[in-house]
């Protein structure tokens, strides 16, 4: 039951929501709009709403700047990161949800501290170590690093989801003759799919959105799309190059928009689970 | 669950975190207290310089050359330097002088002004200054805006609600480098906002030309970026507000503000603490807008300073010193939280 508000309050509320709607959307909407323009029209005074459209920026970025190579790298890195981080994250998350000892608590606290570490701190140590080991700029290296960075968040979230599955379920399975591992694999995982999808989504986003680690760890043709965007930054560049950067940025955004549209419920569930059920 | 089973289940995850998070932290300490350089020796190098008519003059010079080890790579010498790197990174010595000098200024206000002037000249302190400004200005703003949005969206129809949640998620979920760029391109000279301002007949305004406006835009970006996070958590918490006290309050004649103040807000207190904790942790690592706005002089952050030192100055020891100071900041921010969690745990047992 919701009590009615006064008309003034309702008008203010609608006005505020409308303003936020515009503000939240404007930078992306404008970026999409100008990515299909000639530089002259994209940065004109006064700004124009309707101009001739062109696909030139996108064609240049994807074909001549070889964005498709970076796209492939992104797919390899994000898919592998997601798979590995879910596998080891599920095991740990399940154990943390069921184990009663103090050690579990300390592990979660350590994970919280690790989660707060700025990534550049870790990068500083990776650099000399990975050079010495000769594993710089390789898919495996980036994947393993992203998985590790992902773990603190992943195990917190998965633990919250596993806690919502009643322990009686695994106990029943174990009474029926399953080992702990058997109960986990045959009984718990099948009912955990919603939680796994959600945690997978966040692993994907972390790997996909990462700039700091990817831009430094991967050289040249090994870069991911997000890291490759760094090539278009900087103040002293031609307007044409700026337009190519905008087309690249739009290309990176599109899959995310599809993802948010398709998995809105899971994203909201993941954020609330990771944050509140601690 | 048995202890041994627990260990077996968490092992892969724990190993990954120990090797790639805990060990690197130790590595950073090691890097920060050492200095390395390529070992060189002075060698005679003879070059033939052609003069004219086929006459060649032999020139012998003494130049430093890297010493190669048996594997054909240059030998790098490591030297323990203690806190030298840290002192240099934090510019401690300069700071001591300033404090001495400023003390002579007499008044306390003069002292603080002189200190502040000097601090903003030091890379680390000015980066820390803006990092803290960013963190502590955005935190209350995202709490207020996030709550206001959650209360508003809670009242609209179900369909409008879905649209609002979708649009609100975008600033937070879209790749931060991209969303920073999207905002940057709007404020660029000739971008839509300065262009619209001059089209409306005002003077041309350069957002990226001064410290004040650049910092304002970056903080505004931070609020825009993080408000969705506060909104989602508040919105979820609002769904769990107990209805009985609310109805009782209505029957007792409480108005909307009183219901919010005395029933809803107390219920939201725990989630407010969670939002604050996570946001402070994330804001302290602010990186992408600083990178994208590319104005280190006007607005720097501790994470970007370290990144810059590592990527562009190629100085791992200085970067490690900055990194260590950054971690010290994280620890200071986290200690109260950890103490509280520990007490709760003790009380719970």
Describe the secondary structure blueprint for this structure.
The complex is a heterodimer of chains A (278) and B (349).
Chain A: H1 7-35, H2 39-42, H3 56-64, H4 67-98, H5 102-116, H6 119-133, H7 139-163, H8 167-175, H9 180-209, H10 212-217, H11 225-228, H12 239-262, H13 264-276
Helix pairs in contact in A: 1-12, 3-12, 4-7, 4-9, 5-7, 7-9, 7-13, 8-9, 9-13
Chain B: H1 3-32, E1 34-38, E2 40-50, E3 56-66, E4 76-80, H2 84-90, H3 92-103, H4 108-121, H5 123-155, H6 158-173, H7 176-187, H8 192-199, H9 211-238, H10 243-251, H11 256-284, H12 288-293, H13 302-311, H14 316-348
Antiparallel strand pairs in B: 1-4, 2-3
Features:
heterodimer; A: 278 residues; mainly alpha; B: 349 residues; two-stranded antiparallel sheet; two-stranded antiparallel ribbon
Describe this structure in words.
- The complex is a heterodimer of chains A (278) and B (349).
- With 278 residues, chain A is mainly alpha-helical.
- Chain A is 77% helix and 0% strand.
- Chain A contains 13 helices and no strands.
- Chain B has 349 residues and is mainly α.
- In chain B, strands 1-4 form a two-stranded antiparallel ribbon. A two-stranded antiparallel ribbon of chain B has the order 2-3.
- The longest helix of chain B has 33 residues, at 123-155.
- The radius of gyration of chain B is 28 Å and the shape is extended.
- Chain B starts with a helix and ends with a helix.
- The mean pLDDT of chain B is 88.
- Chains A and B meet through helix 1, helix 4, helix 5, helix 6 and helix 7 of A and helix 1, helix 5, helix 6, helix 7 and helix 8 of B.
